[in-house]
Amino acid sequence: MAKRAQVKRPSKHQGEQESQNFRDQRRSKDSRQRTKHRQFEENSNIVEINARSNQVATAYLPHLNKTPLQAQTASQQSYINAIKNHSLTFGIGPAGTGKSYCAGALAAEALESGRIERIILTRPAVEAGEKLGFLPGEMEDKYAVYIDAFRDILIERLGRGVVDYCLRHGRIVGAPLAYMRGKTFNNNTFVILDEAQNTTPMQMKMFLTRIGENARVVVNGDIKQSDIYGANGLQDAINKLQGLPNVYVHSFERADIVRSGLVRHILDRYEPEE
Questions:
Q1: Rounded to an integer, what distance in angstroms lies between the CA atom of residue 232 and that of residue 139?
Q2: Residue that wins the pLDDT comparison between 53 and 203
């Protein structure tokens, strides 16, 4: 008959000793943590890197603006009405007048309401006085830096999740102006050409001849801030097309700047009015 295995069980005294050792270790650890916390409170120069703040944790989330777009100036209202009632609208004028914001917000509202199926954002891939050099990633990644301003506008109006979804599924498209050749803008598309002062007359002609029936196209720019040499495609297009049916040219003045009063003063110094 096999013998039963004998298991050595700890004595009652030994178990109590182990429990006491565990309690001593716990008290020692708590004491060290309290000491460290007191030292942190006494030294105001110490910053706790791992501290979580609700304000900091959500700082990257932009405020979602669900209210309908409202003009801040009479000039903006005329510009908004022109975009709603014309196939092709030119918005020209100084920085800070709301040209890009109004166009982007109207595009977001049209997409959200289902009046259009796609937003196309484009601009010439021209740097403002400096060369960016090689940009990593796919074409969309390289071009993303050029349409960041519109991405922010769309995120504010639609929410980051909606914008990311639409970008992945082609409902919002950002592409260089050179990639517009061969495309047709149909009645389900809202197209915004920004920084149009950096186009050549041939580029502008190529872009404008993409417009299909009932498309909504907005061309924005500040003729005085062109970063290219030679003829300006924006000015050339306005000279040729002004007065055509379903085409509207809206000019913002320096008094229409809503970005800040400082911007108006800065432009007064850089571009003194005659």
A1: 26
A2: 203
